[in-house]
Amino acid sequence: MLGKRLTQLDDNESHCEETMVASQDEGRVDGASKHVWYSYVWSLSQTAVEFADRYNTALVCHRWCFLACHPRLWLRVDRSVKDLSQPGVFPSIETAVSAASPGDTILIAAGGSHVASNIQIKKPLCLIGGGELPDNTTLICSRGSDSALEFLSTCKLSNLTVKAELGCCLLHRSGRLTIDGCILQCESNPLDHLSHAIVSTASGPEVLQSSLESCDNRVSVSRTRIEGGAKAVLTSGTLALQRVRVIYARTSLFFWFDVEHRYVWSLSQTAVEFADRYNTALVCHRWCFLACHPRLWLRVDRSVKDLSQPGVFPSIETAVSAASPGDTILIAAGGSHVASNIQIKKPLCLIGGGELPDNTTLICSRGSDSALEFLSTCKLSNLTVKAELGCCLLHRSGRLTIDGCILQCESNPLDHLSHAIVSTASGPEVLQSSLESCDNRVSVSRTRIEGGAKAVLTSGTLALQRVRVIYARTSLFFWFDVEHR
């Protein structure tokens, strides 16, 4: 649902016209009286507690996760694909490595075994196993080969199992090699003393006389199981094993260590680093999961029969009453929710659960002053609010943000009594005891306003400012602020 909302672009906006409406008030100063004028800025210090806007966090993380996991950003090795004319799909690791560009990520499909014998990698690449565990994606080095993979550039391996009968699993010639969450297995045989998980022939950093650049040759291993063989690491250059850490699990050992120059622990890196989209995808997926987790929301859903579930309420009023400052209330899509004179006195965020604001409707019954009444910093997003008489939203105090909503005043003979937004708040009150100020304002963006006598009616000291209107084919979209003149 979030992905659709993020990628949804309105073609109508390409033919839109913007109208800027600005108003300025000129004040007259009476010479007989003494006036103190304050220079008000657009942005005032906020003392109200801001709500944790998990909704926008979810949108951003979902978008990044979608981009990071997009198949067009990967080269895939998949033997089960019969149509090899698909772009970016290869039958073997060797052909994928040959076709890859520096910085590419190669995703090796899970299931079965992939043959890897003396494959030289001379460009920065990232090789990732496509299974949930490294056991699901296996690379087998055939007998008689020196190694499965030979690295001559900055590379990374992750979530893979590499098996070698003789020789070594990985041969490191030069560059920076990162191995994370893998399994390196040397098969048990009478010639175990000739088998090694990692062999490095690289030397220490070579500082060029013409510049300050250096060639950083090193191997970094983390969360990796090493089984069999004479040694985990064999070095024939000037690099040495350092900072070894081992975690003993029930059935296996997990290693963390570095293979680098004996005298330098941290070296400047000038090699071209690959775009590690895999880790980006993992981090974004985790954040998206946390931001979208149902336990982090209060939900209003009339279709749920078992109201004993934590965080689920039958109406908006009960959800607002039970909410804590900073909570986000997700209002289920479909049907209509009754909202009449609901006072919100704590910082909250109310979000419509549909793909569009039309899918989640709040109806203010006839005879009510407003659907929602705000007395604190709050935000509304992706909602439709309908009012027959009175107003859709009543702003008393605090900072109110309205984004991507629809405010509808029903057409009737008393249209002159209907308004989309009514604000009775006054300008900022500067406290004498400190520099804190109370920021009362309304910010509206990407919002459709239909019907009523006025879009905004103010009875305090706030005024409509910075109005921008986009004319689409079927509706008008408004951007404006209601704040101190």
TrEMBL record:
Question: PANTHER family from the entry?
Answer: PROTEIN NESSUN DORMA, SHC SH2-DOMAIN BINDING PROTEIN 1-RELATED
The organism is Ilex paraguariensis (yerba mate)
Q: Record's superkingdom?
A: Eukaryota
Q: What is this protein called?
A: F-box protein SKIP5
